Amino acid sequence: GIEVELTKRLSRRWQMEASYTYSRAVGAAEDYLSALGDDPSVVQDEYGYLDYDQRHVVKLNAAFYLPHDWQVGAVVSRSSGLPFSIINEFTAVDNFGYTQYRTFYGFVASDRSHFVFLRRNTERNPAVLNINLRAQKAIVIGRLASKLFLSVENVLNSDHLRILRINSHVDSTSVLPQYDSVRRFGRRFEIGMQVDF
Question: Coil, strand, or helix at residue 54?
Fold first, then answer.
């Protein structure tokens, strides 16, 4: 990958860091213990983008030091969507009556005349924009340096859905595909106190 970073060091009561990362992650499996590669009939379709492949990531961090021991900071990031696969999971019986649980990458054509083969992780989730804010005030309690803080994560209150895979069930009676996904829940507030001793 390639990374470019710009840093504005603390001066005149503010600092900033901005970065851009271009990367490409391809391979046949995400980790050593993966079941990928166990079925020789689909090995040719397993090589592709890894599930953590993010092409473009832009980040901006800024902090401002205000009068009366206040600090305000922001983190803004925009990243490309992560890949996912369209799969068909089914059971098959070989010539010796041994049942196998199999996964094919692709889907059955709408006219149900043939199977459309795809490589693993050929689809993409949408890009994600995230903004986090934090304000804190330094206070002294006896001999202890302390901070009160308020942070707001996911300021835009986005609840984007990250699809991990779509299972179209080639041998199922269900017509609707199954979406294995994770939804990010909305805005989160955190209030706290930090004591250094």
Answer: coil
